[in-house]
């Protein structure tokens, strides 16, 4: 937690982190509710669900204790990967998983897309608000420029 933030910036950071933690918990819960039967039907998808659930829990914990670029990237990439998986199962299907092709209106799937979209938007906002990453080029330029001191 940065102590050099003004109260408004700190409030925005706190709200964004809280929303992202709830969003990651929502993604984990939705996939936990949908995992029933996956071990028998498509075991590899069940294991992917468990990986996503675990990663969402770790990402939420990271956001609870820090405001880092890596935690926010996880909050962006995890729901995006779930959205890609949902899209693939509804369009081309996945190996041994063609039963949901064309099934775009499944209520749990729609809830998942809503939570994941909101989480991606929140993470995008938070990443944009973070200070820019200093690249090797900008560091070299800063070191080569004589200081005015």
In short:
This protein has helices at residues 7-34, 38-41, 43-65, 69-90, 107-129, 136-144.
Overall shape: elongated
**First and last CA, distance:** 31 Å
**Average pLDDT, all residues:** 88
Segments where pLDDT lies below 50 for 5+ residues? none
* Largest β-sheet summary: none
Task: Quickly give the structural class.
Answer: mainly alpha
Helices and strands, with pairings:
Layout: H1 7-34, H2 38-41, H3 43-65, H4 69-90, H5 107-129, H6 136-144
Describe the structure.
- The protein has 149 residues and is an all-alpha fold.
- The protein has one domain (7-144).
- Helices cover 73% and strands 0% of the residues.
- The protein has six helices and no strands.
- α1 (7-34) runs antiparallel to α5 (107-129) and α4 (69-90) runs antiparallel to α5 (107-129).
- The longest helix is centred in the first third of the chain and has 28 residues, at 7-34.
- The mean pLDDT is 88.
List keywords for this structure.
single chain, 149 residues, mainly alpha, 6 helices
């Amino acid at each position: 937690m940065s102590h050099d933030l003004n109260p408004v910036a700190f409030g925005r950071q706190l709200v964004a982190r809280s929303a992202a933690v709830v969003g990651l918990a929502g993604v984990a819960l939705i996939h936990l509710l949908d995992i029933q039967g996956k071990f028998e039907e498509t075991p590899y998808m069940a294991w992917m669900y468990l990986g996503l659930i675990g990663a969402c829990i770790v990402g939420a914990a990271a956001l609870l204790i820090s405001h880092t670029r890596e935690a926010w990237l996880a909050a962006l990439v995890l729901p995006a990967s779930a959205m890609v998986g949902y899209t693939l199962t509804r369009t081309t299907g996945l190996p041994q998983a063609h039963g949901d092709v064309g099934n775009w209106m499944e209520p749990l799937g729609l809830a998942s897309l809503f939570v994941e979209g909101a989480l991606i938007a929140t993470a995008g906002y938070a990443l944009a608000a973070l200070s820019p990453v200093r690249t090797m080029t900008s560091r070299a330029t800063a070191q080569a420029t004589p200081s005015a001191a």
